[in-house]
Request: fold
Amino acid sequence: MRRWLRWGIGGVLTGVPLLLAVAGPWLVSGPGARSRAFVAGDGHPLGTDFVGRDVWQQVLLGGRTVLLVAMLATVLAYLVAVPWGIAAAVSRHRWVDELLMRPLDLVLALPSLLLLVLLATIAPSGSPTLVAIVALLNLPGITRIVRAAALEVGSRPAVEALRLQGEGWWRITVGYVARSIVRTLAADLGTRFTGALYLVASASFLGVGVPPDASDWAVMVDRNRPGLFVQPWAVLAPALLIVALSVGVNLLFDRALATRSGPGPRPGARPGARSGARTETGSGNRPGPRPEPQGAAP
Amino acid sequence: MSLGHYALRRLLVGVLQVLVVACAVFLLTEALPGDAAVALAGDNPDPARIEQIRRVMRLDLPLAERFWDWLAGLFRMDLGVSLVSQRPVAAFLADGLAPTLVLATLTLLVLVPLAVLLGVVAAVREGGPLDRAVTTVSVALHAIPEFAMAIVLVAVFGVRLRWLPPTAVGVGGDLLRHPAVLVLPLVVLLARPICSISRLVRAGMIEALDSDYVRHARRLGLSTGRVRLRHALPNAVAAAVPQLAHTTDWLLGGVIVVEAVFVIPGLGTALVDAVAARDLPVVQGLAVFFAVTTVLVNLVADVVGFRLSPRTEVVR
Reply:
């Protein structure tokens, strides 16, 4: 019963926005008729928005971009970071390691939203740009964790044995090291995805990389703000959906981690996510990868 | 390595870091699309007028020369003047700094005691109801983007209940005179850092309470309170110091979203406005300022961490 409750809250909080985001666009049949801006009721279940569109329809349409951009950005970041981090970890030469890791410190040295605002004004606006930028901002953190995990795995006797057996570089690196760090990376995935979601939503709210009248939950929150006194649902509905999605996803991942690491009584402890912290050596002045990337905001 | 040596070396690395960031930002902002001269010439631009503006602003000089001038100015603490309003960039910084500093200081003043207290209480009764509640709430709160939380709070407390002003419109830079304006932004700013820091303190405290030196202190007959406060707590706090530095850094530069929601004329707003107006010197000046604060905050954090918990490895 209690277990059901624990999974249930996260499940419901994630499920509702997820369902709306995925299935919503199919439920909308063509652009509806426009009426006056910020009307409450009057045939519109949630009223109308700043240009007179039906808010409910916009809610149905607006989840897909947020979710898709965050997912693609996370996937892209992993696709680049995993080979990058492993290459830095397994290289025999120290300068290769430094050459690969130092440029990433530069990305970490500035607040991520500042970088995001700067980069987005240079690049052409659009979802692919946002995917690329969010992936770039997530890259240093993931690469550090990959590197730390791969360093730890690479110093195991098993790797030495493989080397003595005369196995090739490819087989050792991809066949053993890369496969061994999958668990550590999986433990970190939840944090990364919520971080991406956070960045994508905040960027869209600031009007970065999206058209000003886009059907997007975060854009809706921003654009409908002038009507907060007249028609609060145009702002509250998308805002609450974003809150529910972020909270739900985080709760679910946390639950999954706690369950996977055994039925221990410590729901908050994250053994996997922090195991790399102590083994990391020689990369920057920061003591290990931060367990909670606030820079993905704070 | 002694503390002084260590700090000095970190400082040199920090200066280098700021220089690299400054160069990167200069090149990035030069790549911004749109031309300030065209933007300034107005709706119906006359080519001769654009040329004239370009010359006055020295936009016609080659990139390398302008970069060199700018860098030289940096060493004299001269950040140049705004392209749009001809005000010195330093004045923009000074204007934006006051509200940002007020928010950051107040947030930290509430954050540190509260987060440490929550973490310690949760750790001392590990697994108890309070611990579980704190952990679950912090997992949930941590993920929420500030703008979504801010707008929900504004809708409830500002619009529906009318307890607090919904934005800081009309207050100007003088936030301290109107404390009611500050309540909602503070709550929003506190939400995420409190979660991460109290979690780290909790983990550090649990580890410290379980360690040999605490057990030894107990065997010596020291009181529980003394063991917890004098022996376990510093190490627990040391675990959270890097994250605290990160939060401070974020508060000093990155709270663009919160300033946008509550219409607070701080540094974040200054940056967004400057980027929108293609006001390159202001953008560059702000970016350099943010880089300097990042380096300084991290330096202070490492030194404090070194003092609190000398065993911690801070080499390199």
Q: What stands out?
A: Chain B has a mean pLDDT of 80. Residues 89-124 of chain B form the longest helix (36 residues). Residues 12 and 187 of chain B are 37 Å apart (CA to CA).
